[in-house]
Fold this sequence. Notes:
Chain A is α/β, with parallel strands linked by helices. Chain A has 16 helices and 9 strands.
Amino acid sequence: MTEPSSxxxxxxxxxxxxxxxxxxxxxxxxxxxxxxxxxxxxSELLTRVIWVEHKEGSCTVVDPVAGDHFKPxxxxxxxxxxGPWTTYHYNECGYRSATSCGPKPPGAVRIAILxxxxxxxxxxxxxQTYFARTAADLSRSxxxxxxxxxxxxxxxxxxxxxxxxxxxxxxxxxxxxYLLAPFDLEQRIDPRELAERNDPARNETSxxxxxxLTLSPxxxxxxxxxxxxxxxxxxxxxxxxxxxxxxxxxxxxxxxDFLRQPFTPAWxxxxxDVDLIIGxxxxxxxxxxxxxxxxxxxxxxxxxxxxxxxxxxxIDPSAFGHQIESIAANHGADYVDLMQTFSNIPNxxxxxxxxxxxxxxxxxxxxxxxxxxxxxxxxxxxxxxxTPQQQSLAREH
Amino acid sequence: MGSASLQFLAYAFxxxxxxxxxxxxAWRQCALLAASIGFLGFFSRRPAAFVPLVAFLLFxxxxxxxxxxxxxxxxxPVLIVGIVSFVWLKKYAFLxxxxxLPAPYVTLGLSYIFFRVLHLIIDARARQSTLxxxxxxxxYLNYTLNFTTLVAGPIQRYNQFASMQLAxxxxxxxxxxxxxxxxRIIVGIFKVNVLSLFLLAVHTSAVxxxxxxxxxxxRVFATVTILAVYPFYIYCNFSGYIDxxxxxxxxxxxxxxxxxxxxxxSQNYIxxxxxxxxxxxxxxxxxxxxxxxxxxxxxxxxxxxxPFLNVFALFVTFLLVGLxxxxxxxxxxxxxxxxxxxxxxxxxxxxxxxxxxxxxxxAVGVNxxxxxxxxxxxxxxxxxxxxxxxxxxxxxxFLSRSLGSRAIALVWICVFVGSSITLALWEAARExxxxxxxxxxxxxxxxxVRTAWSTVLVITSVATIxxxxxxxxDIVYKAF
Lengths: 397, 480
């Protein structure tokens, strides 16, 4: 503990070095910058050791045309800095499932899940995922095995999800679940792709390598900073404070506009695009005799707002969910209302990884409870025989 | 608004910006007054809550004017009214609570305003007063309410303040001064937001652990931690805040007096108090100790008595230091311990000089073992007195019962030996580091090293504020 009076003479009558030499105008900021870089390097090193992250996707087949999918019979172990080590096993069809994608076992009820990372339950060990928990609940309640085929692939936009619908129908499921979160709609769907969504030629898997984008040095530096572990750790602690997190999140423009009422034209267009896709999905599934359940999953920002007592003006955290529910209802699809559940949970933003934004195992449990309840409410024929007593038993579990 | 918060800094820098838009005295006066009133506004939105503070300030101004007008007959009554008003407004525990004002009101900074007002009244009454004849209301308010020194000092004398604030040409503010002021603020923020926060966490955890730890060794360790950490915590908290306000004031072209000067390097308790809360102890030395000594010597004019009168005057002065810190009986005891510490030190010095002579006594003082033990003893006494500063009788009773007399003795031995060794090592390390010189200056004090060091402190402070995600710790002396 040095005494500042001895070496910082702000309060002393005369400073021995009353002027700065010309070189100091360059040298002092450079020293400061070098110190910042040095500390940043050290902290990056330390945070990489403590907050381990391993995201190599060696099971992923990158396909810019038909959408990414997973290699059959592939197993990989990855880790998000904020979450536990997670093993992903993909079956012979490349689905995150514990069972085979072959013909449905006799007496089993099959659930096919479509969507992106939220559907796939990214960064959550299999047994803690919402679909594994739901399957266990349903199995207990209905006294028969539940076979879940999860076709979810991180980063899938609704158009890619739609392209995988024939695959899902081919599985002969008893119900199809489609989970989507606000960030699935962040990227506007290419209008041409949307218009050609039913063209079979578009669905063929590409054999061409993905186009490699070259980033400018500035962009590369920005990306390095954003992807640095130090920044992630700082954000992790910073965003644990709901007010800070919301304050910063609401600074986003278009990205956060799904929270603002009325919806901007850009978001109205996104919802119109999703309306077309869900409409087509519902039609095709209806033709195949398979019920569709659409599940709008709240983002961390929505959950934080749902738990807040006072909302900022023109902000409606339920708007996205209600819009998707309304689209589903218009096309005769079923939906699960998670907004009400999340608004009843104090600090429900804690059910998400703080920076990454995906649901934690605890968040998965909440989804599983609501989903089990929905599937057991009698609206899905495959579960209609499950009795109310069995439903309450499922809730207890 | 937290006293060391980023909001406070933002407010201060906004004020500094406006303040430096004009150079005239009138502009500087108006800007500072508006800033100080605005600062007070953060503490209550009810105008009625400021009535007692405003009344006290008006009383001070009228008393000043009365003294300057030559009404010295009223000096003693005015002084008594001032002291009684302060004691009443601060709700000292020995007064019946039925006498206190029932509605809540702002007393922020009242203790420091009290010192400034007393200084003005006493100096105005003096025959050879150096105070200007006509102190305007604006100058008076700027001096007493200056937002940089309102919360926890330092206590500046009026003439020193006026020589800068009322000077036709304001103090220079070039890039070097600004850089040094900024450096001071950074050091302060680091002390308050990082060091004091960490030390408080250690202290609180040790206090909490006492209830759950049953083994004697565990309790001894926890108590040693409690005793050893608190003085460092209060030092970082208070001196850090003083660093911040000294830096901020420099942007307002005011140099504030230093309040700390490496107090834990002190080899005796009198020296400690000349390096700790310097402006308070020098105020009391000037307005309590010296007048008391003069009166006593006049009353008992014997050279043989003089050293003992000195011991007595020191005791009274530091008893008042303790009383000023708080309104409860704990602070009376705290004051008594402070008084005992300085008076026993004085008595020891008097007796040692008498027995072995001044030269031999000075020679003993430079012996490294004696120095280390003296520093350790000073720290240990400081740690002991501070028990009555942060705790209450019930906590002290629990501490004493849970330890027992043998463990208590062991605790004090540990604190003494530990602090003697640690402080000696610190002094040696400091001396060694300062021995690296470049162009006859320690390398550590070079502008380049300080720039790198300040950058480290900024990053550490910002990271701590972000990572802990907690409100900034309050300044302990804000309560006084």
